Amino acid sequence: MEQNGKIIGKRERIEATFDRYSGEVSREAIIKDDILLHGLNFSERSLKGAYQEKAYYLFTFDSDRPEVVRERPAMIPQEICIQGGSYGLRRTIIQSRHSKDSPYSVDVLDGKRVLLLDGVPVADVSFVPRPAYYGQELRDGMRVEEVAPAIYWGETADVTAFRICEYWNRGKQCLFCDINENFRSWGHLRKGLGAIVPEDIVAESLEMASRDQGVKRYLITGGAILDSRREWEFYLRYIQRAEESLSRKLPSRLNTQALEPHALERFYETGVDYYHPNIEVWDRRLFSLICPGKEENIGRDEWIRRTAEAARLFGTGNVSPNFVAGIEMAYSQAFPHGFRNVEEAVRSTAEGIEILMQNEIVPKFDTWGLEPLSWFGRNGVSIPPLEYYPELYIRYKELKREYSMPWPAGLGEAGAGVSKVPASAFMDA
């Protein structure tokens, strides 16, 4: 990057961003989003020892192609924690996204794992430990973590019930998404499972996970099913079996498309606590271009209407559609549609945040990771500048205060040094 006619490195730029947003957005949030944007490289010696390995349960999230990641002799961790160091960082949990070309790397110096930025140590690093429930065998001989791996530093048992998305069959998949490619590339990690995970072993896995005191909730998620009735009946069976097994021992999160009110009532009655009908991007035109299957099958306006109905049923803070923060700035010769400056992009998404909050809906975010086997990855789109994220969070916090909204429920505690949300810094801000 050039500043006042001088080329500056990534470290100087991140420090300038710290200074620019001092008092408004935490350092932890800024460096976390920069790591999520650019990924992490890991030295071989940093990957020695015991830790929770990355599960590749839904998407890759990696900046590198799967064949590059598979060259590693050891699997990277699911998440890392950075703290201390030259920036005095509070404890910050970050999802691992592999990138050999990242300016951020994890290595071992003086017997300790450290985070390097442009080759300079800036923070101490620890890897997420294996949860206590890992290693147990299910009745069919599979290990519990093959069905219900942990995220959120062990607090959420995460089940991908349907490991692909039917929009891919029509070439209508969301342009940022690599779910089907993830299954094709990493499905071998769960040799006994196909695209559909049997309900009984999901219930058995969640019951095992629930005995671990570190597990605070479970999540049922997966790809879209084209027929609305088939979709809600499919996912409802998993919630029913899980609740029969758990007897309301753990709160439940459900991530599906925006479902009709009559279907949502069934989930509510069965025991779903938190619902995530992920809208991905707000702008009307970009929604139709980036999420063509969702636009064709349900439509943006209907998606918003159903989400508002869900909030009336589940209550304020319990319905949290996700934005893939940054995709509204996707731009390339093949996709010349994204916003070209941060102010316009944030204004667009903030409009969506405000309308949702007016309807008792509290949206959440994942920081966009440009996956090479997604449509965007194959077509050379650019990622947003780092400044987009603190600007978005400032506006989010303003609107949250204006409408007296809580943090999204079901994600754990919020705050720098406290949040365990791994794929976004909005709750670290």
UniProtKB/TrEMBL annotation:
User: Which residue intervals define the domain Radical SAM core in the entry?
Assistant: 151-406
A GO molecular-function annotation: iron-sulfur cluster binding
Alphabetically list the UniProt keywords: Iron, Iron-sulfur, Metal-binding, S-adenosyl-L-methionine
Q: Which PROSITE patterns match?
A: RADICAL_SAM
Q: Which domain of life is it from?
A: Archaea
- Cross-referenced Gene3D superfamilies: Aldolase class I
Classification via InterPro entries: Aldolase_TIM, rSAM, rSAM_sf
Which protein, by its recorded name, is this? Answer: Radical SAM core domain-containing protein
